[in-house]
What does this fold into?
Amino acid sequence: MIINISHLIKGNNDKIDIKTQMYHLLPESKDDPIEVGGILYVEDNVLKVDLQVKVQVHLVCSRCIEEFICPLNLHLQESYNLVEDQGILQNETIDLTELLRENILLNLPIKPLCTENCNGLCAECGTNLNILSCKCKEEQVDPRLSVLKNLLNGDE
It folds into this structure.
């Protein structure tokens, strides 16, 4: 998302309003648009970026491995010094693509869950416990540890 900021730098405008949709910024967003809105303005030789970002991210639940949609609503604020940050501000334009991509990725859940009370998969047969229940024994004890179970019963 490249924005021409020449009018801001020259002082012709006091702000630039942004309202756009981006596609294919992330593989996780599939064909859903990333909605970006906000303003850019200059204050004391500092370019201020204030954005609202809305995106629907397609994730896979870490318990039941079903795909689900995770909505993200982000508020981004960034400042660029017009004197020192010349590498970022090239040809009187600024590219906000990486700022958007990084902030979306940083706000994805570490352990994505389709719901907070997701039951996951049965460790024995692999049945999705959100949909069906299975007949597997719930308490499978490692035979090497069965001696410890006897200690709790007081048999030995």
Notes: The helical segments are 6-10, 97-106, 146-153. The mean pLDDT is 82. The CA atoms of residues 124 and 137 lie 8 Å apart. The chain has three helices and seven strands.
